[in-house]
Specification:
binds alpha-D-galactopyranose; 20% helix; alpha+beta; ten-stranded antiparallel sheet; single chain; 32 strands
Length: 634
């Protein structure tokens, strides 16, 4: 058993192959953090209370009530509460009506659960009894009736501890949670720097290392998606960290909406790292007996630099987050950069014919296949096939592709509605809005309010109807704008929960479908989405040179098999750069590998065709072909 749970002694310990995590009680009731780092060699836990001097006179409130506040100002509370003398970033803020609350849950009980319990309505890592065990510590606060269940799962073969929290209203009155984060970690002095992955659209996942200074620093999203601007990841690292050496304390959030990841350095230069749903515009109402489940945080410690951290995340996600044994993925050709909206069935079949000849396996029809979609300004939400472009419908196109030996894949953006659509004309109120002003447009579209059950059901019917209408073996689920004009403090999280339900229904009802998530590229590339789709489109920037840093940052956390990467045409549509086909091929091979171009159009000189053969996996370039390449292609 890799967990010790000793309520009598008031100490708790989790072990993974190379790490240990220890907590202890002060005054028999305040749960404090003691240690996280290299695996402890000493057995037992009788030393735990002395580690930070947390249970010694005159520091604890029961022994020295005169200076109670000093205790709470310095005690490394495992799950810190707002408005209780802990003045750093806290995890829990409870409100009763218009009034605040000084909720201070004390230790109540603990137990060890074999394996890992599922999280209600949320994606999470999974494991059987042989893979992991879970420590559940229950805290409770008598005046408010708040019960807090802290879950820690320690993996037996990986240096991973996952954390989540369930907050229950065990009292008689209504409560509001204004902050309910998933994890807090007190860091050792050795971690002077912070690593985050930040960027922008077409510039995702740039690694940034900064020195940690007094006050708070970190990364966050309030866009309703995990965002291009910040990966839901944070690590405290030793200043000398590199791929092989140095310490890393990392947290990664299994969630696809607003998040906060922060490190705070206090008056004594001690550092605390927290992660959870962003508290801005968040409040959750809990009636008596109701509970709130926070999303999961994956935590790892590495004494072997960033490389060890990366390998741990990859192994965890491959073995305990990706839900099906996906083997070799089909080599696909996506028509986006080849045609944009300018296509019809004949044109698609022309491109597909060449793709088939070259041994590709899947043809993906991107945006523009439905009515009222000559540009990106209309049609979203209706999902009726444009018979002018596709006279034989999706089924007819699929049949023709099958005759060429290709599978058929399709693009949809199910969460959206265009103002120029039948759906919007019939249900303008289904778009997210406050009701006080017209909601803000972005890419000429609005977001459907998935937090309303009738909207969620409509969206499901459109997805299921489309998938049933033709032999579709792959779906690219896109999402191309942030959430704005929200009318309630629960809406953003309820939206994410509905999104997860929809993706779950796809996985359950279309088990053979290959789902690829996308959000204008990597705007929702997070472990939450990965739970449903084994691959995610990494960036709209397909320029091979710019892709190097984008994919390198993404691969710091995610296995290469998850990273959507295609060979596209030149000059690159975003960067305008000319890049040898060889380079584009190699970069795309460091991901799922596919193509996003039109062979003939990109090849007025015929050069392209020759080099195309060089990187078609089924027809490797011969030595003679290689040698005959013009020098600028090398
Ligand atoms: C987003 C996606 C692209 C493409 C377009 C279609 O930008 O990231 O890959 O599918 O939408 O409109």
């Amino acid at each position: 058993m890799n967990i010790i749970c000793d309520a009598g002694q008031g100490a708790f310990r989790l072990d993974t192959p190379c790490t240990s995590y220890v907590m202890a009680l002060a005054d028999g009731k305040w749960l404090g953090h003691v240690y996280y780092g290299p695996r402890l060699t000493a057995e037992g836990l009788d030393w735990a209370h002395d580690y930070w001097g947390i249970d010694q006179r005159p520091y604890t409130p029961d022994q020295f009530p005169r200076e109670e506040a000093a205790f709470f100002d310095r005690f490394p509370m495992e799950y810190p509460m707002a408005n209780t003398g802990d003045f750093q970033e806290c995890c829990l803020a409870v409100r009763r009506g218009a009034g605040l609350s000084d909720c201070m849950p004390e230790f109540a009980s603990c137990e060890i659960l074999p394996g890992k319990p599922k999280l209600d309505g949320l994606p999470a890592t999974f494991g059987e009894e042989a893979d992991c065990n879970t420590l559940k510590i229950t805290l409770s606060d008598r005046p408010t009736g708040v019960v807090v269940e802290l879950y820690y799962t320690a993996f037996t073969r990986l240096d991973v501890i996952t954390r989540s929290v369930r907050i229950i209203n065990g009292g008689g009155g209504t409560l509001w949670l204004d902050r309910a984060l998933s994890a807090c970690l007190h860091l050792p002095d050795t971690t002077g720097s912070m690593l985050t992955l930040s960027g922008s659209w077409a510039r995702e996942c740039g690694a940034q290392v900064r020195e940690i200074g007094p006050g708070t620093q970190g990364i966050a999203s309030c866009r309703g998606i995990s965002s291009h601007q910040g990966q839901p990841f944070i690590a405290a690292v030793s200043p000398d960290v590199n791929q092989e050496r140095g310490e890393v304390y990392a947290m990664h959030f299994v969630y696809s909406g607003n998040f906060l990841a922060r490190i705070e350095q206090d008056q004594f230069d001690r550092r605390r790292m927290v992660m959870g749903i962003h508290p801005e515009s968040f409040s959750w109402k809990l009636e008596p007996g109701e509970s709130f489940q926070t999303p999961e945080v994956v935590m790892t410690y590495s004494a072997g630099g960033l490389g060890k951290m990366t390998r741990t995340f990859h192994d965890l996600y491959r073995g305990h987050l990706l839900r099906r044994p996906y083997g070799k993925r089909p080599v696909l050709l996506n028509n986006r950069e080849a045609t944009y909206f300018d296509f019809d069935e004949a044109r698609l079949l022309e491109i597909a014919g060449k793709a088939a000849e070259l041994g590709m396996e899947l043809f993906v029809l991107d945006d523009g296949w439905f009515e009222n979609r000559p540009t990106d300004s209309g049609g979203l939400g209706d999902w009726t096939v444009d018979r002018q472009k596709l006279p034989h419908g999706l089924a007819g196109l699929a049949e023709r592709l099958q005759a060429l030996g290709l599978q058929f894949g399709l693009w949809m953006e199910p969460e959206m509605v265009s103002m120029d659509s039948r759906l919007y004309r019939e249900h303008p109120d289904w778009a997210i809005q406050t009701g006080e002003r017209r909601p803000m447009l972005c890419r000429d579209q609005l977001v459907l309010d998935l937090s309303r059950p009738e909207v969620e059901e409509y969206v499901w019917q459109r997805i299921a109807g489309t998938l049933h209408s033709a032999p579709i073996s792959y779906l690219k689920w896109d999402m191309n704008r942030p959430l704005t004009n929200l009318g309630s403090a629960e809406q953003a999280h309820r939206y994410v929960l509905a999104l997860y339900r929809l993706q779950q229904r796809i996985v359950d009802q279309f088990p053979d479908l290959l789902l690829e998530n996308c959000c204008s590229g990597g705007g929702r590339f997070d472990p939450g989405m990965l739970y449903y789709s084994p691959q995610i489109w990494c960036s709209d920037d397909t320029d091979a040179v710019e892709r190097l840093s984008i994919q390198q940052g993404t691969a710091m956390l995610y296995p290469l098999s998850c990273i959507g990467a295609h060979v596209s045409g030149c000059p690159n549509h975003i960067a305008g750069r000319m890049t040898p086909f060889h380079t584009r091929g190699i970069v795309a091979m460091a991901g799922t590998f596919g193509y996003e171009l039109d062979g003939d159009r990109s090849s007025p000189t015929g050069i392209f065709k020759e080099s195309w053969y060089g990187f078609c996996v089924c027809k490797p370039m011969t030595r003679t072909q290689k040698d005959s390449r013009p020098s600028r292609m090398v």
